[in-house]
Write a structure and sequence with these properties.
5 strands; alpha+beta; 4 helices
């Protein structure tokens, strides 16, 4: 097992895993028709601005897990003394490789990377299966609410 920080050349793999994740959880229907292209282009832009990163976990030469982080500066946080925050995205392990601690290892790398960029607050939207992992890492329910209309 080895972990590598993804580069722009790895974005096709990152996007494929993201699409696999959306398909598995049944959210693929929420994506635009050309979502793969849009995701690739947005991630490429964010990588070039150094506002996003992903880590890939390999078994031999095969990527079996990934996870990413984005640095955000939106309202109202842009008015805070620390105007940025991190947002965890795309934490995914292929089904047959789960329960090996791979997501924990990727999360450690993501947290280190965000801290190194000066991020003090990190958010994420957990799946029901991932919630326990994030709580173990110190994440808590912030009380944020949402509605789809």
């Amino acid at each position: 097992m080895r972990i590598k920080k993804a580069e722009i050349d790895d974005l096709a793999t990152v996007v494929k895993l993201k699409i696999d994740m959306f398909t598995e959880v049944g959210s693929i229907v929420l994506l635009q028709e050309n979502a793969e292209k849009l995701i690739y282009e947005k991630y490429r832009e964010l990588y070039l601005e150094e506002k996003a990163c992903h880590f890939l976990l390999y078994e031999d030469d095969t990527v079996v897990a990934c996870g990413g982080a984005v640095i955000k500066e939106d309202v109202p946080f842009c008015f805070f003394k620390t105007p940025i925050y991190g947002y965890i995205i795309d934490v995914y392990t292929i089904p047959e490789k789960r329960r090996n601690g791979y997501s924990s290892k990727i999360m450690e790398e993501l947290l280190k990377s965000l801290k190194g960029k000066g991020v003090q607050n990190i958010k994420l939207k957990p799946s029901s299966t991932g919630k326990q992992l994030y709580e173990k890492l110190g994440f808590y329910d912030s009380g944020e609410m949402e509605i789809w209309i």
